[in-house]
Amino acid sequence: MLEAKDVSVFYGAIRAVSDVDVTVVPGEVTVMLGANGAGKTSTLGAVSGVLAHSGTVTVDGEPVANPGEARRRGVVQVVQGRGLFRGLTVEQNLRLGAYGQSRRVARQAIGEAVDHIPEVGQWMGRKVASLSGGQQALVALARLMAGRPKYALLDEPTLSLAPVAVDRLYRELKGLVAQGVGLLLVEQYVPRAMSLADRLVVLERGRTIYSGDPQGAGGAEDLVAAYLGSPATAHLGVQS
Known about the structure:
globular, 38% helix, alpha/beta, four-stranded antiparallel sheet, single chain, Rossmann fold
């Protein structure tokens, strides 16, 4: 289990995240929602060890304090915007995703990722910059798989994607969960996120305003109205 307790993140004198708790269980999905600036990305950065923070983060009972430790314990992140190296080929990006594994294991991990997402195998020699947004989203997911995650952190993976690409991405995410991977998913598209959620955390101005069973927060439209505010509905897939 991946647990973050009493996590706070500061940018200078500004407190971006205040005493947030997050739990991710293998084979389950924790969804984190909040309006822009709520502290979601900063929380992911703390959990992955990229951002300095107070509080504790443990993976399967062992504390982690930096990205290297988190990665060694199976925590892999897809950052907002996907974080691909656009000037490199798809194959080079997948190799970077498998970094830290032996050459044999890395080859096997990349092969398994391509088996799950066969289209990626057709693009191996192409530079990422030549791919569409939907194709890049699949490459980012394949790179994640190449890292053999136990816990995957995804920051708005559907950003700027067409509906058909969103559908495909969510099918692949469901496949990861079925394999026992625990997901911490930050989303702005509430209905789709809620369709996957086993646990829900809602942030507002860096603080937790709801944590628990998704059903306890109501439906997607109720959730937007109660926690995120009607101006956000255009970005959340809910019609006002």
